[in-house]
Amino acid sequence: MDVEIRKAEKADADEILALIQELATFEQEPDALILDKKNIEEDGFGPNPLFSCFVAVFKNKIIGISLFYPRYSTWKGATLHLEDLIVTEKMKGKGIGTKLYKAFLSHADSLGVDRVEWVLLDWNTTAIQFYEKSGAKVLSDWNIVQMDRSSIKNYILENK
Question: Considering the entire predicted model, what is its pTM?
Fold first, then answer.
């Protein structure tokens, strides 16, 4: 299978968004996506990009992405966070995810980061096994903490 892995371009925004929507559906949150094409274009390809992305292209169609951004660890230093590695359902099991993963890790290595990290759903055993097999450690003693925009605003208003 002749799959090209390349850096994403602004013109890829529609296909990137479609894959993100497919992931939201897979993760049983089909209505959680609030981004649109304009967000992807501005946040990924504007003057101050907030993320980078590799795409997997087969027959001129994007069939997978690895979307990531820089972070900083107070313990380890420069870090890349892999937000999502997505392969369209029809193309899973063909090594495309592995190619995207390798592109991400090669990029991290070229930048000299001291750590890469990402989050997995505990029921996604296929992904857990894939990453553990690659040498990644799946930490079970950390909890993810999040606040949405409404919670942020409420906290600020309540704590003036």
Answer: 0.92
